């Protein structure tokens, strides 16, 4: 079972640590419980940016202190308007991207795949920060950062075309949701690490620091977007 500690300081900045040591794979129930606690702990900071990182020892650190260069944005402040915008980088907290031009594409992809719009937006925000020309060091491309083999598998065509990219990415998420019986956390983990990695982990979130933080980040965005739509 994971340990969870909250440390109070005189300033508003607080750091929450979860013992997610890679040497001992964390049971999913403990991980998901920690996610819920994180959401509750920061609910009073609705207007704050939340930053996070995973250390070499597997400890996840969350903070709303933007001065720490080792952390990156996990949750931006409330999005303006119906759809809002995401952070372009943790280093430039004031720069935002207009996501409204992708709203029609995301809505279409959601209808076609039956994947919630909020989940698509959360994945896009984390994967590319809504940059349709984004390219990762590993060669993933476009809004949903599709690898060439995934793009081909789901008939993306031009990976830099926003519509083609999001439609294919949504179909991939649909496949992952079906594979893991509708479990969103496992589908998100598989989007990052691959479905085989999740299966090898016994249908649990793999004990990779990057994947743990990825799931935490995407789910934080997803819960916030769901809350905004329901409010």
Topology order in helix (H) and strand (E) letters: EEHEEEHHHHHHH
How are the strands of the biggest sheet laid out side by side? 1-2-4-3-5
| Shape by Cα distribution | globular
Distance between the termini: 34 Å
Question: What name does the CATH topology of one domain carry?
Answer: Lysozyme
Report on the biggest sheet: 5 strands, antiparallel
Radius of gyration: 17 Å
Mean pLDDT: 74
Q: How many distinct beta strands?
A: 5
GO biological process, one term: peptidoglycan metabolic process
Keywords: Lyase
EC number: 4.2.2.-
Protein name: Soluble lytic murein transglycosylase
List keywords for this structure.
single chain; 231 residues; alpha+beta; Lysozyme; 5-stranded antiparallel beta sheet; 8 helices; 5 strands; 10% strand; disordered N terminus
Question: What's this entry about, in short?
Answer:
This protein is α+β, with helices and mostly antiparallel strands. It is built from eight helices and five strands.
Structural notes for this entry:
The chain has helices at 28-41, 103-113, 117-128, 148-153, 162-179, 184-193, 195-200, 209-230; strands at residues 4-7, 15-19, 50-54, 59-63, 72-75. With 231 residues, the protein is α+β, with helices and mostly antiparallel strands. It has a domain at 100-202: Lysozyme, CATH 1.10.530.10. Strands 1-2-4-3-5 form a five-stranded antiparallel β-sheet, covered by helices on one side. Strand 1 (4-7) and strand 2 (15-19) form a beta hairpin. Helix 3 (117-128) packs across helix 8 (209-230), helix 5 crosses helix 6 (184-193) and helix 6 (184-193) packs across helix 8 (209-230). The chain is globular.
């Amino acid at each position: 079972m994971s340990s969870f500690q909250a440390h109070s300081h005189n300033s508003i900045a607080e750091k929450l640590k979860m013992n997610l040591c890679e040497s001992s794979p964390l049971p999913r129930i403990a991980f998901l419980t920690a996610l819920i606690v994180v959401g509750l702990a920061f609910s009073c900071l609705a207007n704050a940016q939340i930053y996070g990182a995973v250390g070499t020892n597997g400890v996840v650190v969350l903070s709303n202190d933007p001065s720490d260069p080792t952390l990156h944005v996990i949750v931006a402040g409330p999005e303006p308007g119906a759809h809002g915008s995401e952070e372009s980088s943790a280093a430039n907290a004031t720069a935002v991207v207009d996501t409204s031009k992708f709203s029609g594409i995301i809505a279409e992809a959601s209808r076609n795949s039956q994947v919630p719009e909020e989940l698509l937006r959360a994945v896009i925000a984390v994967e590319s920060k809504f940059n349709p020309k984004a390219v990762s060091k590993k060669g993933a491309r476009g809004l949903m950062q599709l690898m060439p083999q995934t793009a081909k598998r789901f008939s993306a065509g031009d990976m830099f075309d926003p519509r083609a990219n999001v439609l294919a990415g949504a179909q991939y998420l649909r496949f992952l949701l079906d594979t893991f019986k509708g479990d969103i956390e496992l589908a998100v983990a598989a989007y990052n690490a691959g479905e085989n990695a999740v299966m090898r982990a016994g249908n649990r979130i793999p004990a990779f620091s990057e994947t743990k933080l990825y799931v935490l980040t995407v789910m934080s965005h997803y819960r916030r977007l769901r809350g905004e739509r329901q409010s």
